[in-house]
């Protein structure tokens, strides 16, 4: 596994006082009940699944889900993939050093650990007669969408300030992709990934927008949305995602 971006290991999350408007409930994953945040109209036939960053169900992530639901009229599911064991908000930079964070992600955030929750969410949406499902992921979450792309669970995916990235992640992609990197990602890796995406049969449906004037995490837990620049760029990112999903779902 490649290492996390520098900013992923040094920038702490923002402590938001936003009050989410959706519902907190549970979803059965194997023998356990995982936390699940649901927002948007219950009767929508379109849905998005969000894979959060290492900070789990952070208010910024939930606020973004609320915004997308309002923009698109989609139902949005944000499960807690870490089962309440997300990375400590106060432990950035990691007190034990960067290797400890990398090791933690490999332990609790492997594809083998994430997959059962993702499958449970998709199956629940299908039972609710949702006919079109897309997904978006932040940082670690974007990597999980790349690792699971071969399962063809979604009609389109958005990858927002992705981490642990490799150009070869493009090879798994089978549906339209929106790529939204920040200044914190390796631009050479992003470009090589995108070059491969451009050779796909669905390349014309893909979207890339670079946000090189804002830090890694600007659209999720690491962003202070009381800052007008950061909030404006985050709104722009969500608008791009909104239009992308409308076009491909």
From TrEMBL:
Pfam families: DLH (PF01738). InterPro entries: AB_hydrolase_fold (IPR029058), Dienelactn_hydro (IPR002925). GO terms for molecular function: hydrolase activity. Residues 34-247 form the Dienelactone hydrolase domain. PANTHER family: DIENELACTONE HYDROLASE DOMAIN-CONTAINING PROTEIN-RELATED, DIENELACTONE HYDROLASE FAMILY PROTEIN (AFU_ORTHOLOGUE AFUA_6G01940). This is Dienelactone hydrolase domain-containing protein. It comes from Piloderma croceum (strain F 1598).
């Amino acid at each position: 596994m490649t290492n996390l971006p520098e900013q992923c290991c040094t920038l702490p999350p923002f402590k938001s006082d936003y009050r989410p408007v959706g519902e907190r409930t549970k979803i059965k994953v194997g023998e356990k009940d995982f936390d699940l945040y649901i927002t948007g109209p219950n009767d929508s036939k379109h849905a998005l699944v969000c894979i959060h960053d290492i900070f789990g169900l952070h208010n910024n992530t939930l606020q973004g889900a609320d915004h997308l639901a309002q923009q698109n009229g989609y139902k949005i599911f944000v499960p807690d993939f870490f089962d309440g064991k997300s990375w400590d908000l106060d432990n950035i930079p990691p007190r034990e050093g960067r290797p400890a964070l990398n090791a933690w992600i490999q332990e609790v955030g492997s594809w083998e650990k994430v997959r059962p929750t993702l499958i449970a969410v998709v199956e629940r949406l299908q039972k609710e007669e949702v006919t079109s499902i897309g997904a978006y992921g932040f940082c670690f979450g974007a990597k999980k969408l790349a690792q699971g792309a071969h399962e063809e669970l979604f009609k389109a995916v958005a990858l927002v300030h992705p981490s642990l990235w490799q150009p070869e992640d493009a090879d798994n992609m089978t549906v339209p992709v929106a790529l939204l990197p920040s200044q914190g990602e390796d631009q050479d890796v992003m470009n090589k990934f995108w070059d491969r995406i451009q050779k796909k049969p669905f390349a014309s449906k893909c979207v890339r927008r670079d946000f090189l004037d804002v830090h890694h995490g600007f659209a999720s837990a690491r962003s202070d949305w009381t800052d007008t620049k950061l909030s404006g760029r985050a709104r722009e990112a969500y608008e791009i995602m909104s239009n992308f999903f409308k076009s491909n779902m």
